[in-house]
Automatic annotation (TrEMBL):
One Gene Ontology MF term: kinase activity
Binding-site positions, ATP: P104, V105, A106, G107, G108, M109, A110, G111, G112, S113, T114
InterPro entries: GHMP_kinase_C_dom (IPR013750), GHMP_kinase_C_sf (IPR036554), GHMP_kinase_N_dom (IPR006204), IspE (IPR004424), Ribosomal_Su5_D2-typ_SF (IPR020568), Ribsml_uS5_D2-typ_fold_subgr (IPR014721)
Function: Catalyzes the phosphorylation of the position 2 hydroxy group of 4-diphosphocytidyl-2C-methyl-D-erythritol.
Native source organism of the sequence: Kribbella sancticallisti
UniProt-listed Gene3D superfamilies: 3.30.230.10, GHMP kinase, C-terminal domain (3.30.70.890)
Pathway where this protein functions: Isoprenoid biosynthesis; isopentenyl diphosphate biosynthesis via DXP pathway; isopentenyl diphosphate from 1-deoxy-D-xylulose 5-phosphate: step 3/6
Protein name per Swiss-Prot or TrEMBL: 4-diphosphocytidyl-2-C-methyl-D-erythritol kinase
Catalysed conversion reaction: 4-CDP-2-C-methyl-D-erythritol + ATP = 4-CDP-2-C-methyl-D-erythritol 2-phosphate + ADP + H(+)
Keywords: ATP-binding, Isoprene biosynthesis, Kinase, Nucleotide-binding, Transferase
Length: 312
């Protein structure tokens, strides 16, 4: 039976990478202050929200490459996003969520956060809430540090825990290759390792490197390659030392830069152009060093409603 308009909404939401990730000393509340430059890349999860008119239940089904690694109970970030909207706006209807995952789970690419962002956008439309982008961004910040950026997308500066986002000017398109490792890394565990590795060092307030912002403005991959940085890399490598060989392999194959993505264990590589990205992806796939390889351009927009399929 065809579904009536707005009884079903699909939202496509991107993965993020951190082009610069500067981590300050832990705050009394345990969070680390960050200064980061995010970029949204064309690796997406699709979240379909289908209306439940007869009750207020929220269910979730997860499909795709990483489905087995994603919880389907109330700890799923998409479920939490739907429940937050229900409680804040006294919504009496429910929703069945289907997540088609292509973003690695616990891979340092904000997969869960982007599902939460997609769910906010989908349920806002499904339940006719008419919330503004700034309303959604406020709710997003309650759900997690990376969720506001996943709504906004493109390239942006993240402050606070990463949840205070402002757009950054970036020219052109960059070509990225991702080596997705077996297993994930828990973000809190990597922060803990970072604190263990630098307990006595005077840790400065987090800062974005000016050369990173000028590289983005120039649109030149070679300039961006030398401006990338990630304070969490040493901690991720300390927990997963074998990733160093993956990073080195990518550099040996001509990547302009190689870095751990966020808290890892995904390794990211900047290629000079789309052709070099394909070549690098092939070499990495054949190397046996990782579980799978993906290529994606950035920047791309944040969570967006997809046009409804045309039904006959
Ligand atoms: P970040 O880069 O934001 O630190 P990440 O990419 O490393 O996050 P996620 O893929 O968001 O990690 O997953 C972290 C944990 O969150 C997973 O181990 C999983 O148990 C849980 N989780 C909850 N909801 C989801 C979801 N919708 N998709 C993926 N993981 C989820």
């Amino acid at each position: 039976m065809p579904v009536p308009p707005h009884a079903q909404v699909t939202v496509r939401a991107p993965a993020k990478i951190n082009l610069g990730l500067s981590v300050g000393p832990p705050r009394p509340d345990g969070f680390h202050p960050l200064a980061t430059v995010y970029q949204a890349v064309a690796l997406y999860d699709d979240v379909t929200a289908t209306l439940r008119e007869d009750d207020a239940d929220v269910t979730v089904e997860v499909l795709g490459d990483f489905a087995d690694d994603v919880p389907t109970d109330d700890s799923n970030l998409a479920v939490r996003a739907a429940r937050l909207l229900q409680s804040e706006y006294d919504v009496e209807e429910g929703v069945d969520l289907t997540i088609r995952k292509t973003i690695p789970v616990a891979g340092g690419m904000a997969g869960g956060s982007t599902d939460a962002a997609a769910t906010l956008v989908a349920c806002n439309r499904l339940w006719g809430l008419q919330l503004s982008q700034s309303d959604l961004e406020r709710l997003a910040a309650d759900l997690g540090s990376d969720v506001p950026f996943c709504l906004v997308g493109h390239t942006a500066l993240g402050r606070g825990r990463g949840e205070q986002v402002t757009e950054v000017l970036s020219r052109g398109t960059f070509h990225w290759v991702f080596a997705i490792a077996d297993g994930g890394l828990s973000t809190p565990a990597v922060f803990k390792e970072l604190d263990r590795l630098r307990p006595l060092r005077r840790v400065e307030a987090p800062e974005v490197r000016p050369e990173l912002l000028s590289a983005l403005l120039s649109g030149q991959p070679a300039a961006l390659a030398v401006a990338l940085s990630n304070d969490m890399q040493d901690a991720a490598l300390s927990l997963r030392p074998e990733l160093a060989a993956t990073l080195q392999f990518g550099l040996d194959q001509g990547a302009l830069a190689a870095m751990i993505s966020g808290s890892g264990p995904t390794c990211l590589f900047l290629a000079a152009d789309s052709r070099s990205a394909v070549d690098l992806a092939v070499e990495l796939s054949e190397s046996g060093l990782c579980r799978m390889v993906r290529q994606a351009e950035g920047p791309v927009p944040g969570a967006r409603i997809l046009p409804a399929p045309i039904s006959r």
